[in-house]
Amino acid sequence: MPSIEAGVPSETQRPVLSVKDLKTHFHTDAGVIKAVNGVSLSVGEGETLAVVGESGSGKSVTGLTVMRLLARTSARVVGGSIEFIDRGGELIDLLALSDPGMERIRGKDIAMIFQDPMSSLNPVFTVCDQIAEPIRIHQKLDKKQARAKALDLLRKVGISDPESRIDAYPHQLSGGMRQRVMIAVALACDPRLLIADEPTTALDVTIQAQIIDLLRRLQQERRMAMIFVTHDLKLVGEIADRVAVMYASQVVEEGPVAEVLERPRHPYTKALLECIPSGRSADGKRHHLQPIPGTLPNPLAPPPGCRFSPRCGFAAQDCREVEPVLEDAAPGHVTRCLRWKEIAL
Questions:
Q1: Is 28 inside any structural domain?
Q2: For the residues of 233-252, what is the DSSP string, one character each?
Q3: Cα angle at 7 between 263 and 308, to 5 degrees?
Q4: Residue 278 pLDDT
Q5: Could you tell me which residues are beta bridge partners of residue 165?
Q6: Element (H, E) at 264
Q7: Would you say 41 and 6 are in contact if contact means Cβ atoms under 8 Å apart?
Q8: pLDDT of residue 46
Q9: Which residues contact 140 (CB under 8 A, 6 or more apart)?
Q10: Where is the ABC transporter domain (predicted)?
Q11: Is residue 166 part of a domain?
Q12: How much is the average pLDDT of 209-237?
């Protein structure tokens, strides 16, 4: 079966972001780490794409590469393209932009919610200072106007008593409030694309549910394209339209959420689903979790053939010798597996 590209949004949705064959490598003293190795993703207007995988799979590095936030690290983009369509319909090659050109887009047209708000928010500036900064830079409002808009954003993200919270410092807020402030910062200039990098990881389940509901509502109201990065497949069905599963720097499966979660075509996706607690069955028996054996491969020396083969119960000799390519398993559903037809049975 011929290979195809992953990451194509539905025909009715306009692609706001198109990432094609992206390769981001880190050059270290020990060797080259191919953190993102041939990743293709697209997301349309008003659509949410979830990017799922274990820590170290390349999810966050993909988002940071799109934002061009790896310049001061050892990372280098050695291949691929990142194309973005702005509000005026202009197609922009993000990798070809100058640093000043990217600064005009970052925080305005493309924004990011980072994993840990306590380390991402500046401890020496107030909530008002941090929300107002992108407003003053990109929308050229004065201090009074920016403060009024910051206050309105705090209301929209559900901060209680925003009039008193606006002059608080990050350490004076709870974890859930800090995360809401991070969302307010990201939405300050009404971005066309929002990248949410594991925005609920450090929160308890109640606050997590509130943040998911908030992001979903704001995304629908503003018709933003959103990339939701997570390691938790349970959240995917609640917020996303499509899902891309990453393993060891590559997309191994991608498609509509219902299709992928109900009919996985890659053993890694299937294994991730078996790790989700499901309570008790109708006969009262407890479902036992099925942990994935082994660990992620050494990024400096990935195994030959399929990178998941050392941990895969379906692996055969050809899986250890032939590197699979993405194949069409169903309409809009692709997988990187030589034995996907057997998994589908």
A1: yes
A2: HHHHHHH-SEEEEEETTEEE
A3: 60
A4: 66
A5: none
A6: none
A7: yes
A8: 93
A9: none
A10: 17-273
A11: no
A12: 89
Checking if the pLDDT of 161 tops 80, the result is yes
- Cβ(113)–Cβ(186) below 8 Å: yes
- 3-class SS at 161? coil
Reported as a pLDDT band with limits 50, 70 and 90, residue 87 is: confident
Residues in the chain, how many?
Answer: 345
Q: Distance between CA atoms of 132 and 212, rounded to whole angstroms? A: 24
Tell me whether strands 225-230 and 193-197 are parallel, antiparallel or unpaired.
parallel
**CA pseudo-torsion sign 140, 192, 228, 314:** negative
| Cβ-contact 200, 179 below 8 angstroms | yes
CA distances from 250 to 1, 100, 142 (A): 20, 30, 45
Q: Is residue 180 part of a domain?
A: no
Spatial separation of the C-alpha atoms in residues 285 and 251, rounded to whole Å: 35
Report the number of distinct structural domains present in the chain.
1
Place of tokens 């938790």: 232
pLDDT for residue 79 is more than 60 = yes
Tell how far CA 73 is from the center of its chain: 20
Q: Cβ–Cβ contacts within 10 Å for residue 214, how many? A: 17
Q: Which domain holds residue 39?
A: 14-100+233-278+299-344
Does the pLDDT value for residue 201 go beyond 90? no
Dist. CA 40–CA 244, nearest whole Å: 10
As a whole number, mean pLDDT of residues 231-242 equals 89
Angle between helices 127-139 and 143-156 (to 10 degrees): 120
By mean pLDDT, which of 122-131, 189-198, 222-231, 280-289 is the weakest?
Answer: 280-289
Residue 303: which CATH number? 3.40.50.300
Taking the C-alpha atoms of residue 231 and residue 51, their distance in angstroms, rounded to an integer, is 8
Chain position carrying tokens 């990935």:
302
Cα(119)–Cα(122) distance, rounded to whole angstroms?
7
Confidence of residue 286 (pLDDT cuts 50, 70, 90): low
Mean pLDDT computed over 52-61? 93
Residue 282: pLDDT over 50: no
For the four alpha carbons of 241, 251, 107 and 79, in that order, the dihedral sign comes to negative
3-state secondary structure at position 42: strand
> Residue 92 domain-assigned?
yes
